[in-house]
């Protein structure tokens, strides 16, 4: 039987122009990794920054199935270097999977290493606890709960609304566990604020701004579930926009403001811009028409795919095409039972979507699908998509970008192997090096 090591090395050999770091990172993101108890954190009381569960669970098991990792959280991210593949510094978001062939533990010298099939393949660095996580808001809430940072401290992730109004099997996106993640944290008795008050967000940002003396934090993302009616009397553009307005009034230009929201009509998009948002992520999720209709039933019913795409193009007139960066979930194209059965077909479809947007100056980006077990697609595809798909997508993404004369999108920090901090896919690790 082919081992995971054989698979990884075979793909590294077949695609020598894709950085080895990216091959490993994609495999860790699609399949998760296990942790020895010694590599877990002491939650908010230790020296290592814990996993904040900033929007989705991004785990391969439910919390009760994670064992010690449910009590002592794993780190938010790990950084890999060295080992037999000579890895340059690679930041990887942590997706826990107790049965993964990848395991973080200590070697006989007491050093933290990443093991694959029992063999050490990288040195592991853990994110230090940021000074701002050691402070709480006046009401006792933690900064990690209200304004967690990811991407090695680059991005403040503000999930203002922790649930989605696309609710239940007929509306929720079939790969998304936002609503389940909210439920499981509530059931575990963890603090998990459904709607974050603007004042709390400002107070948490004040603490970050005061203690982030190196100014590692460069951007914030406002996001959460879709709003099909209202939250606190506000529709989607005004609900998410109110946070940007307050942040920009209090800390003008301190961070790049981004919003991940639905593809809204042009007047609403203009309001985002007027509130001070500079980058807009109207995620199109999956390109193929049939799969979009099946996987995003709520979006299809309320907006529809063609209208969604038209609104993305419209928003480029408001934000400028460089600043419209719609996401897709890389890998769901190949999910059984409805997805493509060959990597060739899946890559061809995804590339058609990249071409569509990139030919208009809009640069999509992608996150690597994590098949969370409580989602319909995660249940039927616990292994996720084939690693070959993910590696070839990196190749296709860069080639399409080159063909249209585009470069790495703004708001993601530096690009290039050894430099990238974007942690939930390796597209930034695969592009030519930049400073920021
Ligand atoms: S719109 Fe879909 S992907 Fe976004 S939060 Fe709602 S269910 Fe999840």
UniProtKB/TrEMBL annotation:
Domain of life: Bacteria
Name of this chain's protein: Radical SAM protein
Provenance organism: Micromonospora noduli
């Amino acid at each position: 039987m082919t081992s995971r090591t054989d698979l990884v090395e075979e793909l590294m050999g077949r695609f020598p122009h894709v950085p080895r770091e990216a091959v490993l990172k994609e495999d860790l993101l699609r399949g998760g990794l296990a942790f020895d108890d010694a590599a877990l954190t002491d939650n908010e009381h230790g020296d290592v920054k814990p996993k904040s569960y900033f929007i989705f669970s991004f785990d391969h098991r439910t919390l009760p199935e994670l064992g010690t990792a449910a009590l002592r959280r794993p780190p938010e991210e790990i950084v890999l270097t060295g080992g037999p593949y000579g890895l340059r510094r690679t930041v990887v978001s942590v997706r826990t999977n107790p049965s993964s062939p990848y395991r973080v533990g200590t070697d006989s010298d007491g050093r933290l290493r990443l093991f694959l099939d029992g063999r050490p393949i990288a040195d592991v660095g853990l994110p230090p606890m940021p000074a701002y996580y050691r402070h709480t808001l006046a009401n006792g809430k933690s900064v990690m709960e209200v304004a967690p940072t990811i991407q090695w401290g680059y991005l403040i992730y503000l999930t203002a609304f922790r649930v989605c109004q696309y609710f239940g099997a007929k509306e929720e996106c079939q790969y998304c566990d936002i609503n389940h993640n909210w439920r499981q944290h509530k059931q575990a008795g963890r603090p998990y604020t459904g709607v974050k008050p603007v004042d709390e967000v400002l107070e948490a940002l004040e603490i970050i701004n005061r203690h982030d003396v190196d100014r590692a934090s460069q951007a914030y993302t406002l996001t959460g579930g879709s709003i099909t009616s209202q939250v606190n009397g506000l529709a989607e553009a005004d609900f998410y926009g109110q946070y940007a307005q307050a942040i920009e009034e209090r800390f003008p230009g301190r961070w790049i403001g981004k919003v991940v929201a639905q593809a809204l009509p042009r007047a609403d998009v203009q309001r985002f811009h007027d509130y001070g948002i500079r980058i807009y992520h109207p995620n199109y999720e999956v390109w193929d028409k049939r799969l979009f209709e099946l996987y995003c039933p709520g979006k299809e019913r309320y907006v529809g795919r063609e209208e969604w795409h038209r609104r993305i193009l419209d928003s480029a007139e408001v934000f400028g095409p460089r600043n419209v960066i719609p996401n897709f979930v890389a890998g769901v194209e190949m999910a059984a039972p409805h997805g493509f059965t060959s990597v060739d077909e899946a890559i061809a479809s995804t590339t058609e979507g990249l071409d569509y947007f990139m030919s208009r100056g809009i640069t999509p980006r992608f996150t690597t699908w994590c098949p969370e077990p409580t989602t319909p697609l995660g249940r039927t595809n616990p292994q996720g998509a084939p690693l070959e798909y993910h590696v070839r997508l990196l190749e296709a993404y860069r080639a399409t970008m080159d063909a249209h004369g585009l470069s790495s999108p703004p708001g993601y920090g530096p690009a290039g192997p050894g430099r990238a901090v974007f942690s939930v896919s390796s597209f930034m690790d695969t592009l030519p090096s930049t400073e920021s």
